[in-house]
Amino acid sequence: MHIFFSGIGGAGIGPMALIAHQAGYDVSGSDKQEGSYLRYLKEHGVTDIHIGQSYDQIAEAHAVAPIDWFVYTSALPMEQPDAPELRFCADHNIKATKRDEFLSQFLADNKLKMIAVAGTHGKTTTTAMATWTAQQIGLPESHLVPAKLSFADMGTFTPGSEYFIYEADEFDRNFLSYHPYVSLITGIDWDHPDIYPTREEYNEAFRTFLGQSERTILWQADVARLGITPNDSQHIIDEDDPAINEQLHLAGLVNRQNAWQVAHALHMVTDKPLDELIGHLNQFPGVARRFEKIADNIYTDYAHTPPKIRGALQNAGEVAPGRVVVVYEGLHNTRQHFIKDELKTLFEGVKHLYIVPSYLAREDKNLPLLSPADLKNLMNETVRAYTDTAELNDALKDMIATHAQAGDLVLCISAGGGGSLDEWLRKQTF
Q1: Per-residue model confidence (pLDDT) at position 79
Q2: What's the alpha-carbon Rg for the chain, to the nearest Å?
Q3: Quick one: pLDDT at residue 55?
Q4: Whole-Å CA distances, 310 to 4, 238, 253, 285, 402
Q5: Do residues 54 and 62 make contact, with C-beta atoms less than 8 angstroms apart?
Q6: What is the pLDDT of residues 394-417, one digit of tens each?
Q7: Cβ neighbours of residue 207 under 8 Å, at least 6 residues apart?
Q8: What does the pLDDT read at residue 242?
Q9: Are 353 and 388 in contact (CB under 8 A)?
Q10: What backbone torsions phi and psi does residue 250 show, to the nearest 5 degrees?
């Protein structure tokens, strides 16, 4: 079967294409632009990739090898309601679905039980931690982690494995396509107002997800937030349990909490002793773009919601108390409008803040574009006093280098993808 993945350079679609390739499907795909994930895929055997997403391009690919299933990211019809690739599939009776339908079929075909990681923040790191720990204890697993790992491929299909470890994203209600064997809820806030116009709608989606999960690990605070009465299938843990900091030695409270949840989930699945699982988690090597070191005193982090940003700042503050400098690239102009009130104080306590233009994708075109100067003006008076606007240029590179050489920790909070602060940062020599 020939599976064509549109948006194959994305962190969600790319690993899925890799899994399909490993499972023996004929795999090809397209993306708007080159990027690091495309290079990663090509290095791992997925080489039939087309830059551009026009009607003629997919027609050429179909003429060479007829496409049986067209899998696309949720962003495609949102950004292009009349997307040429979707029109081609409709014109030629090619099955076209979002990624969740393909993955659901893949899990059923291979009799895989899903260990799902869901929540507003911490999903990728927690999914990676679960994958790492499963490997350390010899648990046969397949997985999809939307970030580069030092210890595994982003997507891996292991024939004969029983479990599939997966980041179940709530965007576009994707996670409601699954019925996990075990779900970990990393923490619930309110995000994606374009999908969930109210906090209650967001919470209701998570209540539905809990109902679809055979067993769940979740924090006491989220039980209260959702207003649910726990049942026998739900294991409730306390985010303020002092044992979290006593037994786990990873940098950053958020990371220690993520690891604590993974330990409890895998204890539930395998009956392995908690102290053994915690021992493995204390050796977790980390995930790309999650407090990832780029050079001495320079880090990149994919924190894009206020809870994630607070977690990244807390982590950096543990490493360099009082010496944290932030370069901030907002992920989506739409989100910056959504978090206006929280931006006022979000960066209180950092040594210096530089704001670069937001990374634009899936935008509400009715909202005015908030420039770095506009975002600075949203900050309170205290934060504005140590905030500057910047562009991705040599002047910013020099400022980052100067801070790093002076012993400051420079935390670059970046969206990622082509043209992002993260991509620019990796091209610099410090």
Answers
A1: 80
A2: 21
A3: 96
A4: 38, 19, 11, 22, 25
A5: no
A6: 999 999 999 999 999 999 999 877
A7: 226, 228
A8: 97
A9: yes
A10: -70, 150
Q: How far apart are CA 357 and CA 330, in angstroms?
A: 7
Please, what's the largest Cα pairwise distance for the chain? Answer: 61
Locate tokens 């499963």: which residue? 134
Q: What is the pLDDT of residue 126?
A: 96
Q: What is residue 46's three-state secondary structure?
A: coil
CA 122 to chain centre: 8
Q: What is the pLDDT of residue 202?
A: 97
Q: Which residue has the tokens 């210890």?
A: 151
Q: What is the pLDDT of residues 278-308, one digit of tens each?
A: 999 999 999 888 899 999 999 999 999 999 8
Ramachandran angles phi, psi of 152, nearest 5°: -165, 165
Contacts (Cβ under 8 Å, ≥6 apart) of 76:
6, 7, 83, 85, 86
**Strand boundaries in 61-210, DSSP class E:** 69-72, 95-98, 113-118, 141-144, 155-156, 163-167, 182-185
Q: Indicate left, alpha or beta for 128 from its phi (over 0: left) and psi (-120 to 50: alpha).
A: alpha
Contacts 24+ apart (CB under 8 A), 375-378: 375/328, 375/330, 375/336, 375/343, 378/340, 378/343, 378/344
Report the C-alpha gap between 79 and 72 in whole angstroms: 12
Cα 113 to chain centroid distance, Å, stands at 21
Q: Three-state SS for 413?
A: strand
Amino acid code (one letter) for 117? V
Residue 273 CB coordination number (10 Å): 11
Q: How far apart are CA 210 and CA 184, in angstroms?
A: 10
Q: Which residues of the chain have pLDDT under 70?
A: none
**pTM for the complete prediction?**
0.84
pLDDT given for residue 43 in this prediction: 93
